[in-house]
Design brief:
Blueprint lengths: L1 H48 L3 H19 L1
């Protein structure tokens, strides 16, 4: 009975450790995505600011259609 109790406790602790490791990995991935998307949008902003007139309008249309198709 004691061995069974220890095994049950061990399994519960092991399960919790795995859940915490998974949560940590998900948080790391979310952090990387946020960091990289910030860099990406800063790059897009710099690129758009370098364009003028019709070139900027065409680039904005392309970006808009790309974002819309990505959402679908």
């Amino acid at each position: 009975a004691v061995a069974q109790w220890f095994q049950t406790r061990h399994d519960a602790i092991e399960s919790r450790v795995q859940a915490l490791e998974s949560e940590h990995r998900q948080a790391q991935v979310a952090n990387l995505v946020a960091q990289n998307s910030g860099d990406f949008f800063a790059g897009v902003k710099t690129w758009l600011l370098g364009l003028e007139g019709d070139d900027r309008r065409a680039a904005l249309k392309q970006l808009d259609s790309a974002l819309l198709s990505h959402r679908e």
